[in-house]
Design a protein that fits this description.
binds threonylcarbamoyladenylate, 19% strand, binds magnesium ion, alpha/beta, 33% helix, 340 residues
Length: 340
């Protein structure tokens, strides 16, 4: 084996990937949100490999991916009518539900927690792979811990190129992800439904189906273990600023500055303008961050997203990206101390 490789998806590739999972190996699979690093949920050896390859702290729980509610019920305790309604409305899709973990599921599947996150992805390649494999797969976003999540196969390839443990990693190419940011994480293991991580589905979307849903007043202080520390971060220091301030920097002609803007016309300079529609903006957000990061500027200035719940997830990810920088700086720089 020569290193991580992107694989065109056909029957033979899916069969090989399924065999890889069955023998305790890992496979990178596309989902509609971001690419995931998948291993069998019921195989502690495979789960261990996920943590090692990602460089993820062992206490940061994983999401178990299932084909639907029937498979989810086998992994958790306390699946109720509310879960049925949510699954009916939002699965397959970008909703992750947290319930109590069934004792039959290895503790490592949820970083030792008594709860387990479950989600049914809609991407046809993920579903074909899971159908062939016949068992749930645990899959965190396929980035190295702390870094920006991958939304196409090439992102994953560049993240794992040269990584010793990734020599035989196969990346199933499902094209660019349609949603582009991670799923909404909803905790249903407590007294009432609570959002731990904002995502493609908003608080309002969920409330329409199950009534009141609580969410932190300020994102970034949630209690999902992986959201407690900052991540989703490029290498370049990220600063979240108003458009007018960014324009002033660009007008000053500093060629060490890159800028990511939302809507409007692009000023001169190393700039990417994202669509002002939050759905389209989310789809292109991570590739834009990666693209600007690759130009190795000294500073990456990012426009503060507008107010409104439909921007919650994007705002959350950008805030974390900018916090990570201060953490890296205070830790002496270099390492990615985050834990996504
Ligand atoms: O869209 C997604 O959710 C993608 C795709 C691949 O499905 N996956 C993903 O996984 O984003 P990951 O591991 O990068 O993020 C999962 C988040 C983390 O913040 C983790 O802490 C939280 O979900 N989480 C998982 N299980 C949990 C649990 N039992 N209790 C609290 N938080 C949990
Ligand atoms: Mg992640």
């Amino acid at each position: 084996m020569t290193g991580p490789r992107i694989v065109r998806v056909d029957d033979a590739a899916l069969d090989a990937a399924s065999k890889q999972l069955a023998s305790g190996g890992l496979v990178v699979m596309p989902t509609e949100t971001v690419y995931g690093l998948a291993g069998s949920t019921r195989d502690p050896g495979a789960l261990e490999k996920i943590y090692t390859l990602k460089g993820r702290p062992g206490n940061n729980p994983l999401i178990a991916h299932v084909l639907g509610a029937d498979e989810a019920r086998g992994l958790v305790r306390g699946w109720n009518e509310c879960c049925d309604q949510l699954a009916e409305q939002f699965w397959p899709g970008p909703l992750t539900m947290i319930l109590r973990r069934d004792e039959s599921v290895p503790a490592l599947a949820s970083g030792g927690l008594e709860t387990l996150a479950v989600r049914s992805p809609s991407h046809p390649v993920a579903r074909s792979l899971m159908t062939r494999f016949g068992h749930p797969v645990s899959a965190p976003s396929a980035n190295r811990s702390g870094d920006v999540s991958p939304t196409c196969a090439e992102h994953v390839l560049s993240d794992y190129q040269g990584v010793e443990e990734a020599v035989d990693l196969r990346i199933l190419d499902g094209g660019p992800c349609d949603v582009g940011i991670e799923s909404t994480v909803l905790d249903l293991s407590g007294p009432g439904p609570r959002i731990l991580r904002p995502g493609a589905l908003s608080t309002e979307d969920l409330a329409e189906v199950i009534g009141k849903v609580s969410s932190p007043a300020h994102w970034g202080q949630g209690s999902s273990p992986g959201t407690a520390s900052s991540h989703y971060s490029p290498r370049t220091p990220v600063e979240l600023l108003d458009r007018t301030v960014i324009n002033q920097h660009l007008e000053a002609g500093d060629d060490q500055v890159a800028a990511l803007l939302i809507g409007g016309t692009a000023p001169a300079g190393n700039v990417i303008v994202l669509d002002p529609d939050p759905v389209i903006c989310a789809r292109n957000l991570y590739s834009a961050l990666r693209e600007l990061d690759a130009t190795t500027p000294n500073r990456l200035l990012v426009e503060l997203p507008p107010p409104g719940v439909q921007w919650d997830a994007i705002r959350d990810r950008l805030q974390r990206a900018s916090t990570q920088v201060s953490m890296r700086r205070s830790a002496g720089g270099g390492s990615s101390g985050g834990s996504s």
